[in-house]
Amino acid sequence: MASATPSESVDSELRCSICLGTFVCPSTLSCGHSFCLRCLEATWETASSFSCLQCRATFPVRPQLKKNVALDNLAEQLRVRDGMATAVLCDNCGDDQTPAVKTCLRCEMSFCATHLRPHLENPRLSDHVLVAPIANLEERRCREHSEELKFYCTVDSSLVCSTCTIAGEHTGHKVLTLKKEHETRKTRVGEETRAVEEKRKEAEESVKRMEVARKEAQESLAGIRGRITVKFARLRKALDEDEKEALRCLAVKERELLSRIDEDITRHKREIGELQAAAARLRALQHERDSLAFLQGHLEEMHRREIPKESAPPPPTSLDTTTICSLEKMDAHQLWTQTQLATASRFPRISGR
Question: Where are the domains of the chain?
């Protein structure tokens, strides 16, 4: 896979990781990460604690959000550039420069504010569906028959045209109108959004519990380290090497325990990021008025979640209390005895002095 160009890298840095769009009134937190101000406010509106959604840095009080002027200027330049590249022009003006404000799905034409007036004022055009300007109307047509996609095939879970249902692959299949399927799935998307949000909250709670467990492990291990050091200090000259061996054993236990917890935290943080992105896409679908765009987006989202992952994340690792308790009960004399036995097996004459 080719590496991203410098331009693409800059563009990605100017996009909010919550809504996945170009920054709108970006605000930068003390940890250095930036988000759309409104995205942060919406995320923190019902939150019991305040943290960065990228690095998980926590803040004791809700930060005062202010616009990052420099970042906002760069984002505005990106929006202008993207707008020029994807601008939809009025089909009636013919000057190749007047932007369209709406696209009529019935007429399959885009209109500027002036040429859109008949659709707003003429009662005979009141049933025409007006949506945001669409650059490529071909995406709304059947690739095989070049007819407008008007139905949803429940058998193949695909969008089809009239000819598909009469003389095509979908003959005899049960089909529904786009509007009917839209209304059915709209309720389902709401439920899916809530389910994703619930999973995200559960994952966040798991991370919190594991972070507490990690802190407890560190505190417990720090106490053990201190007691070992104090006890070995009494026999420093004679048992200097024995103390080092005991601390090495403890360090191995510490690395094993904290490594398992850190791996779980990393997996859950990655899952949180994926769930946040899915929730953002589903929230956007809830506000989509264009039935085709809605169904295309939702089908793509369903396909994305159906793709099997490499492996399911294991359940969160709990604090190994048995290991900690065993280390707590092990005193310097036991560690000294163990190391002396090991020394005797390696150096018989030295240990027999």
Answer: 8-85, 87-135, 210-309+316-347
* Angle at alpha carbon of residue 118, lines to 114 and 119, rounded to 5°: 105
| pLDDT tens digits along 244-280 | 777 788 888 888 889 999 999 999 999 899 899 989 9
* Cα Rg of the chain (Å, integer): 31
What is d(CA 189, CA 175) in angstroms, rounded to the nearest whole number? 20
Nearest to 249 by CA among 185, 186, 190, 257: 257
| Segments of the chain assigned E as strands | 26-28, 34-36, 50-51, 58-59, 102-104, 109-111, 130-131, 151-153, 158-160, 175-177
Regarding pTM above 0.70, the answer is no
The DSSP line for 268-315 is HHHHHHHHHHHHHHHHHHHT---HHHHHHHHHHHHHHHHSPPSSPPPP
Write the CA distances from 79 to 32, 200, 237, 264, 277, integer angstroms. 23, 30, 71, 38, 21
pLDDT in tens, 36-81: 888 888 888 877 788 888 888 888 888 888 888 888 888 888 776 6
Q: Which CA distances in Å does 139 have to 19, 261, 268?
A: 24, 48, 37
**Closest C-alpha to 337, from 351, 327, 323:** 351
The strand pairing partners of 15, in sequence order, are 22
Burial bucket for residue 196 (CB in 10 Å: 0-12, 13-18, 19+): buried
Average pLDDT over the chain, rounded to whole?
80
Q: Which two tokens stand for residue 348?
A: 């018989």
CATH of 8-85, one of 3.40.980.10, 3.30.40.10, 3.40.50.300, 3.30.830.10: 3.30.40.10
What count of residues does the chain have?
Answer: 353
* DSSP states of 21-35: SB-SSEEE-TTS-EE
User: What's the CA gap between 210 and 219, in Å, rounded?
Assistant: 14
Q: What are 95-109's pLDDT values in tens digits?
A: 877 888 888 888 888
